[in-house]
Specification:
single chain; 150 residues; alpha+beta; 4 helices; 4 strands
Length: 150
Amino acid sequence: MSYIDTLIENCKKAKEAKPVNEFVLTELEDLDNIEKAIYIIEEVEGDAVETFATLCNYKKTKERACPKLNQPSRVMYVGSSTTGIKKRIEQHLGNGPSSTYALHLKHWFRGEYKIRVKVFEEPFEVIQIIEDALSHDLSPAFGKSGGNNK
């Protein structure tokens, strides 16, 4: 099967895919044993313009590898993991290496946020397409589109 044929098939699968579980994260332990998921980090009752400016200023310090700046939005970040989501969320919370591209929230953000998790049982390529579609629709303030710029 050609690359384009495979891509079309994966797009069809992504269009039909439904999460097997969906929840708002309350405890990191809720992520134990979840490998494949998409997560959406949203600001709760904050000022999206102020939050955008705050990360922009923090990014200039170069203390930590921060994500790409897009435009102010209540949706801060859309991401996925297919190798264990807990570690990735911990990085976004600020409990990971400074060289890992993540939000590192505890180092600059003082507002409230919620993390929505959508668990899937699809292959990596299909999850990436679903993540890209969500990112396109939600226009997050931070982060690049596509896995590894694909």
